[in-house]
Amino acid sequence: MGKKKQEEEQNSSEYGAPAQYDPTFNGPIHKRSCTDIICCVLFMLVITGYMVVGILAWLYGDPRHVLYPRNSTGMFCGIGQNQNKPSVLYFDILKCATATNIMAAALQGLQCPTTQVCVSSCPSGFWALSPLAYLPNAKPADYFQQELCVPSLQLKDTTYTVMEIINKELCPYYYTPTTSVLGRCLPSLGGSAYNPSNIPANFSLPGLSINQTLSTIANATSAGGASNDLTNSFNMKDVGLRIFEDFAKTWQWIVAGLVIAMVVSVLFLLLLRFTAPVLIWILIFGVLAVGAFGIWYCYNDYMSLASSNLTFSNVGFTTNVQVYLQVRDTWLAFLIILCIVEAVLILALIFLRTRILIAIALIQETSKALGHMMSTLLYPVVTFVLLLVCVSYWGITALYLATSGAPIYKVVALNATQGDCSNIQANQTCDPQTFNSSRYSSCPSARCVFINYNTEGLFQRNLFNLQIYNVVAFLWCVNFVIALGHCTLAGAFASYYWAFSKPADIPTFPLTQSFMRALRYHVGSLAFGALILTLVQIVRIILEYLDHKFKAAQNPCARFLMCCLKCCFWCLEKFIKFINRNAYIMIAIYGKNFCVSAKNAFFLLMRNIVRVVVLDKVTDLLLFFGKLLVVGGIGVLAFFFFSGRIQLPGNTFQTAALNYYWMPIITVVFGAYLIAHGFFSVYNMGVDTLFLCFLEDLERNDGSAEKPYFMSKNLMKILNKKNKQPKTG
After folding, report:
1. How many CB atoms lie within 10 A of CB 628?
2. DSSP string, 309-342
3. Which residues lie closer than 8 Å to 532 by C-beta, 6 or more apart?
4. Per-residue pLDDT reduced to its tens digit, 672-704
5. Cα(717)–Cα(694) distance, rounded to whole angstroms?
6. Whether the Cβ atoms of residue 642 and residue 616 lie closer than 8 Å to each other
7. What is the mean pLDDT of residues 381-404?
C-alpha cells in the first residue's frame, strides 16, 4: 500500500497533481472568458490582410492569360470574337527552340517569335506551299487557306503577292500534324501520322528534301519526344469527353453507391455499441493467428532447406531477394523474430486485458453517444465546406496573383534578315490593336508581339512575397478549420459524458452550443494551436523544396542530413497534431487558454500512458477494419455492377455502353473512402474525448454519494467500482 502511494506521489510530482473534486463541475463550463486574445487579434489581422491581397489580385490579375492562349495581336483564343477558335497555330514552328519551351513560354505569358493565329482545330496532316505558288502570276487565294491566315488579310481581295505574304508572315507556308496541348498546336512527331506512307511526295521546305525537312522539324521540336510527352500528359480532351460521357450515364448509380457507403458507415458505427467486443476480440485473435501461421510457414521452409549448404557468406551481397530466400538461416531469422513478436503480443494480451476491456467499453460508449447525438455525424460536411472555401480562395488568389500586371507589347522583327530592320528600337513598345506595319515598310516582318507582364509597379515587384503570404495564410486557415471541428465535437461529446443521468441530462443541441462557444470564446486558442502546426508545415515545405532543388548536387552526407531533418520534422508535426487534438478537448471542457490546456492534457495522458497506448491501438485497429469493410465492400459491389457481372431486375444500364467502366468504380471507391473517413473521424474524436473525460472522472471522483462517478456502469464493472447510494431516512 505504501509503495503504491509512493508511486502515485512520484507520478504527481513529475506530471502534475491529479484533478481535484469540484462540486460545481458537471460538464463543459458555460461561464468562461475569451482566451489567447493576442493570437485572436493577430489571426483576424492576417485574415483581413488575406482578403486585401485577394481584392488586389482580383483588380490587377487576369487569369485568362493562363487559361487561354493568345494570337500575335494579344487577343485570346476560345473567348470573345474567337470563341469558336480555341487553339493557337504557330506559323513557323522552326523559330521556336523546342516544343517544351513553347509550353513553358505560353504558360508564363511569353510568345514564340513567329506569327500565331487562332484556329478552330489544329492541322492533322502535312501541307507545304506548292512550287507553282512562287510563279509571278500565282494568285494567293489559290494556294493559301483563309482560315489559317491572319484575320486582317482577305486572300480574295489582297494585292500582296505570295512572296510578300510569306515575308510578312500573313499565312503559313507549311504545317505538319499537330495536337492541341493546353490550346497550343504542337507537333505530334513519332505518331502514325509521320509514317513515310502518309507523307506527301511534294512535302518539303524551300531548299530542303523531305528527309531534311523532317529532320529539321524534329530537331527544332526536341525530336518530337517532348511534344508527345506533353500530348500524353495534357491533351486528354478526347479521353475527358469519354469519361464525362460515362459519368453522364452512370451518375445515378455512383450517387447510389455513395449513399450505400454512407448508410453502411453509420450502421457500422452505431452497431459497435453491440458488436465492438466481438469485432475487437476477433481482430486481436486474428492478428495472433496470422503470426502463428507465419511461424508455421517459416518453420516449414526452414526444415525443407535442411539439406542446403548455402550460407550468407556464399551468397554475399546481391539485389536479388529470391537468392536470400534459398538460405536456411534466413528462415531461421524470420522464425525467431516472429516468435518474439508473438510472445510479446500474448504477454501484452494477458497483462493488459483489463485495459483492453476499458478500451472496448469506451468504444461502446462512443457508439451510444452517437446514437443520442446524430447531428455530430453531419459535422464533417461543415468542415468539408469550410476547407473547400479555403482551397478555392487560395487557388483563385494564386492564379490572379500569377497573372497580375498589364501586358507589355514590343515591336519585334520576326525575320531580321528580310529588309532593313535597323529602325526598330530594342525596347519600342506598341499597341497590338492599333499597330500599323506600314510604318516599318523597310522591315516586312515587323510585328507587335506580347513580351511579358509589367513588373515595375509596387504591387508587381512584391508578387513573390504575396504568393508566400497566400500559402502561409492558407495553411493557417486550413489548420484553424480542422481545430474548430475538433473543439466543436469535443464539446458535444464532453456534454454527453458529464450528463449524470443519460440521456435526460444531455443539453439541448449540444453540437450547436459547443460550436458557438468555440467561436465566441476560443478563436484565439484555436488559432494559436493552428499557427504552431502551420510553422512546422512551412519548415517541411522548405525542406522538401531544398531537397528537390539540390538533389542532384547533394553528396551522401548532405542527403543523409536532409533525410534526418525531414524525418524529425515529420515526427514533430505528428506530435504537435497529437498535442493540439487533446488540447482542443480540454479547451472545449474547461475553457482555458491553449498552453494551459495542452499542459493539462499532456500531463493527464502521461499519468495514464499505458491506457493511452492500449486505447489508441485498439481504436486504430477497429477503425482500420471499419474503413476496410466499407471501402472494400462498396468497391467490390461497384466492380461487379459496372463490369456487368451482376444485373438488377429491370435495369436498363448496359456496361457495354461505357468507354471506361473503371472510372465509375474509382469514383465510387474514392468517394466511399472520403465518406468513411469523415464519419470515422467523428467517432475517433468521440473516443478521445470520452477517454480524457473518463481519466478526469477517475481522478476527480471516488464513487461516494458526494463524489459519484459519471462513467457508464459497464466501465465501473470492469474497474470493480460502483457509486454508493446516498443514505435515506
Report:
1. 11
2. ---HHHH-S-S-HHHHTTSHHHHHHHHHHHHHHH
3. 576, 580
4. 888 888 888 888 888 888 888 888 888 887 777
5. 14
6. no
7. 87
**Cα 524 from chain centroid (whole Å):** 27
Which of 592, 474, 484 lies closest to 49, judged by CA? Answer: 474
Cell digits of residue 162: 505570295
Give me the pLDDT at residue 61, please.
Answer: 78
Q: For the chain, what is the mean pLDDT?
A: 78
| Whole-number Cα distances in Å, 364 to 495, 714, 723 | 17, 10, 20
Write out the three cell numbers for 178: 499537330
DSSP string for 349-371? HHHTHHHHHHHHHHHHHHHHHHH
Q: Beta strands 407-413 and 446-453: pairing type?
A: antiparallel
Place of cell 447531428: 375
| DSSP-assigned states of every residue in 387-455 | HHHHHHHHHHHHHHHHTBS-EEEEEEES-TTSS--TTS-TT-B--TTT--GGGGTT-TTEEEEEEEE--
| Closest residue by Cα to residue 175 from 185, 165, 167, 184 | 185
Query: Which residues neighbour 398 within 8 Å (Cβ) at sequence distance 6 or greater?
Result: 467, 470
> How far out from the chain centre does Cα 644 lie?
32
**What's the CA gap between 316 and 324, in Å, rounded?**
9
Which tops the pLDDT comparison, 714 or 231? 714
C-alpha span between 119 and 89 (Å, rounded): 7
Place of cell 499597341: 431
Please state, in angstroms and rounded to a whole number, the distance separating the CA atoms of residues 338 and 298: 9
Strand partners, 180: 185
Amino acid sitting at position 377? L
Task: Name the strand (E) or helix (H) holding 705.
Answer: none
Contact 291, 297 (CB under 8 A): no
Cell of residue 616, nine digits: 489508441
- Would you place residue 554 in the very low, low, confident or very high pLDDT band (cuts 50, 70, 90)? low
> Which three cell numbers, joined as nine digits, stand for 474?
492558407
pLDDT digits (tens, 9 = 90+) for 65-74: 777 887 877 7
> How many angstroms separate the CA atoms of 117 and 684, rounded?
58
Strand partners, 366: none
Q: Give me the sign of the Cα torsion angle 399, 401, 407, 412.
A: negative
d(CA 170, CA 168): 6
Contact 225, 190 (CB under 8 A): yes
Question: Does residue 354 contact residue 718 with C-beta atoms inside 8 Å?
Answer: yes
| Interatomic CA distance for residues 350 and 453, integer angstroms | 71
